[in-house]
Amino acid sequence: MTLARTGTLVLAAARAGRAVAAFNIITLEHAEAVVAGAEQAGAPVVLQLSENAVKFRGGRLLPIARAALACAEAAAVPVALHLDHVKNPDLLRLAADAGFGSVMYDAAHLPYAENLEATRSAADWAHANGLWIEAELGEVGGKNGDAPPDPHAPGARTDPDEARRFVTDSGVDALAVAVGSTHAMTTRTASLDHALLARLAKNVDVPLVLHGSSGLPDAELAAAVAGGIRKVNIGTALNVAMTEAIRTHLTPADPRPYLTAARTAMTATAKDMIGALNP
Ligand code: G3H
Ligand code: ZN
Predict the structure, then answer these.
(1) Residue 257 resides in a domain
(2) Residue 220 belongs to what domain range?
(3) Which mutation among 231, 233, 266 tests ligand 1's pocket best, with the greatest number of atoms within 8 A of CB?
(4) Is the CB of 46 inside a 6 Å radius of any atom of ligand 1?
(5) pLDDT tens, 23-66?
(6) Considering the domain boundaries, does residue 1 fall inside one?
(7) Which atom of ligand 1 is nearest to the CA of 214?
(8) Would the CB of 24 count as within 6 Å of ligand 1?
(9) Which residues pair with 50 in a beta bridge?
(10) How many domains does the chain have?
(11) Which atom, in ligand 1's list, is nearest to the CA of 24?
């Protein structure tokens, strides 16, 4: 199977009223497990690498990007590569040559006008270099280990009228929206503002992206897709599965038994969550 492109997968999902799962990878085992989970689910998938994960890899993008690319190219289902939560313009500019077909440029922490200006410039560059680009408006909290703000507080969510203007004025291809989810939740207890999601889906004519999806139970994930979410970002759920498996199977010297258990656990998580999106 050849490498797919995120934009193609998301638009095909949108036409079918479905969503594509996009999993954040940190290690080779994450990438292998996500591809195996997608193959078992018989669904396309996005492998995404965040700026934070690149920092964890000593700031080197290529070793993990090339590993993910090799996993994608060998997959039996369409797999796309996406560079996620990019704030550093220097990293953004490495994306195309490293094999990524899409990026998420994250200036959501900035005031509206500055977010728009930075995002428009990133979008101009991305399009000139053949990349599909996602941006964020209204900040989904809990990034970088920050204490998450209350996602239900007034002003913490994406305003539908602002969202429409932001997409038109920035030229982005997809929009990440704050509708009640929070990054890095280790329990699946969050709930979304479905009325707001419905207004956003009506107002915005590019696909909507959900971040912080690990904190949502299956029924909320399915409802989010039914309400118009077309790309669902999942990271922490894999890390919870990996960590639990390693804790249970930790051996004194050989890493293979516990990494095998970790990969198996992450495969099951990926398969189950892909299934939950499009029941
Ligand atoms: O961009 C990545 C996602 O928003 C992952 O969030 O780790 O809470 O699932 P999560
Ligand atoms: Zn995110």
Answers:
(1) yes
(2) 6-277
(3) 233
(4) no
(5) 999 999 999 999 999 999 999 999 999 999 999 999 999 999 99
(6) no
(7) 9
(8) yes
(9) 84
(10) 1
(11) 2
Query: pLDDT (tens digit, 9 = 90+) per residue, 120-166?
Result: 999 999 999 999 999 999 888 888 776 656 656 656 899 999 999 99
Q: How far is the CA of 90 from the centre of ligand 1 (A)?
A: 22
CATH of the domain at 137: 3.20.20.70
Residue with tokens 């728009």, as numbered in its chain:
116
Q: Which tokens in the block code for residue 214?
A: 């690990």
63-93 pLDDT per residue, tens: 999 999 999 999 999 999 999 999 999 999 9
Phi and psi angles of residue 270, each rounded to the nearest 5 degrees, phi first? -60, -45
How far is ligand 1, taken at its centre, from the CA of residue 203, in Å? Answer: 24
Residues 6+ apart with CB under 8 A from 44: 4, 9, 12, 20, 38, 77, 78, 79, 80
Query: Is 30 inside any structural domain?
Result: yes
Residues near 232 by Cβ (< 8 Å), separated by ≥ 6? Answer: 19, 20, 21, 22, 209, 210, 213, 221, 224, 225, 273, 277
